[in-house]
């Protein structure tokens, strides 16, 4: 699940706030939060810091979601290549 989906569904919709309004409160361009909320762009460390402050979470909360998403996407894209890598055998 992209962190933008969490931002949109678990944070913005329940409080009735638009991505543009959140961006204004965070002091970032409107398009940054709109793109995150529509799952077009990743959460950056700067965005994670700002979201954490506003929503009283931690930057790690946001970055861990992004990392988990990135790993799942990469694993799906590289599944055959990764499967072909042999495992280490101790002597």
Task: Describe this protein's structure.
This protein is elongated. The chain starts with a helix and ends in an 8-residue tail after the last helix. Helix 4 (45-55) packs across helix 5. It has 91 residues and is mainly α. The protein is built from six helices and no strands.
How is the topology of this model organized?
Layout: H1 3-15, H2 19-26, H3 30-37, H4 45-55, H5 59-77, H6 79-83
Order of helices and strands: HHHHHH
What percentage of residues falls in helices of 4 or more residues?
A: over 70%
- Number of DSSP E strands: 0
Query: Can you summarize the main beta sheet?
Result: none
Poorly predicted regions are: none
Counting DSSP H or I runs of 4 or more residues, the number of helices is 6
Q: Bin the strand percentage.
A: under 5%
Question: Which secondary-structure class do the elements indicate?
Answer: mainly alpha
Radius of gyration (CA) equals 17 Å
The average pLDDT score comes to 97
The outline comes out as elongated
Alpha-carbon distance between the termini?
40 Å
């Amino acid at each position: 699940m992209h962190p933008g989906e969490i931002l949109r569904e678990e944070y913005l919709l329940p409080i009735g706030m638009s991505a543009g309004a959140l961006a204004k409160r965070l002091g970032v361009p409107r398009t940054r939060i709109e793109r995150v909320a529509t799952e077009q762009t990743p959460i950056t460390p700067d965005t994670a810091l700002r979201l954490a402050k506003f929503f009283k979470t931690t930057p790690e909360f946001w970055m861990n979601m992004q990392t988990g998403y990135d790993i799942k996407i990469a694993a799906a894209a590289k599944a055959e290549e990764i499967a072909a890598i042999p495992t280490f055998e101790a002597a």
